[in-house]
HTH CENPB-type domain-containing protein
Amino acid sequence: MASKRKHLTLTEKIKSLDFYQKENVSARTLADKFGIGRTQATDLIKNRETILKLWKSHGNDQMKTTKRRKTESGNINEVVYEWFCAARAKNIPISGPILKEKALQVLHAALQGSKTSNGWLDKFKSRYNISFKVVCGESKSVDTETVDEWRIKVKQLISSYEPRNIYNADEPGLFYKILPNKTLSFKNEICTSGKKSKERLTVMLCVNLIGEFEKPLIIGKSKKPRCFKNVDIKRLDLHWEANKKAWMTRCIMTEWLMWFDEKMKKQKRKIILFLDNATSHPDLKLQNINLVFLPPNTTSHCQPLDQGIIQNFKVIYRQMILRRILSQIDVVKDADELPKSITVLDALMWIKQSVKKITGSCVTKCFKKSGFILENLPVDLDNTDLENEIIVGEQLVNMLPTHMQGEDFFLVDENLRTEEDSTDIKLFIITDNDEEETHEETEEPEYTVSNYSEVLTQIQQLSAFTLQKGDVDGYDMLKTAEIYFEKKCSNNQMNLKQTNITQFF
């Protein structure tokens, strides 16, 4: 029978990593020393930078010294705190007895009968700096007075920052392989489970006032889908994460914020980053990022990304889906075969290209529309960029056969959920089985090309074709690819020659 997995506190992890670094030991020795499994020790070593950053950046010193009680489903305090944040985001009043009851539910869910005392409650409140106050009647609907007050406040908040240091981040959901004729069945889906949930991603976009995007953070359902087989995902200039529902979590967001803070530190920049008050967005104390949260229920008016940037991104992305469909529509037997050719890897490439196509002027207009106005920047609130992209997209849709056309194709997933919206405590207890799915339904296409020389021959044929058609842009792009593969072929020949010479001697 396998031994029970031992959970280490953050303090214990730091001690084990300190021992590993000072003694220069193997993962097996580290595992024996601290009574953990070898796989667990390997994971510790692999994730040591993240663990050290978490240790350094955490604002509460007690988190560094207090030994925290664990359940099989994770840390009790962390689970209850996750629930607390979700409840407060919904403006639900929380009292001490309610917190104690939720802690009991966590214990029972983990099959461990126990009691929670006032001592536990006091420590919990102290650890997370929680104080109980009367909640004033805060409306869930958008309050124009709140919006007006925020617009005055935001001008003051950004007044001391350069435009390039004013950022907004948010994470829309994306049906990455939907066809126009499937729009009706997907419209207004929040998509928490089932077949449709397998066709979704969460994409976090982060951009500054002048239109400079950070590399996107994309969350899928499988850490290593089949299409990643021969791909080093770290070289794709994006962040890739995965969990069972392809949702944003506080853990993922915390790691990204620490990465972004470290990046700004290296660039010697102090920035201000605006986020909505989603449950998955932690309130961290960071060195180079001033984290500011938008007022509840005001993102439709106060968040720049919601003023047209996300919509622009989705319209451009769906143009790429349409072009894929139009390029293959004559060679497939049935329209239902078309989505099967779209892999997660295709989606990642299209997401990157879609972000690159969003203009700086479009982004700046959306910031201004949200009240982010600086004295030295002229105000221009027209949204012609989005309108033009929609026109192009509609032209592509109209080129499809009638039975494949559909309404609302471009923004079909605007209501797609990207985080846990319930306050059921059971949903905050994460087990090992919840971390990720390991399958992907899309089959990888089979290719007959076996070496770089064959690829080069085909590219040269394509170059000749574009030249014959007078397609200068296509010819230019293919020539760039031709130069790349010529270099690959010559390197292979040099390696082969070197091998033959070595064998000769």
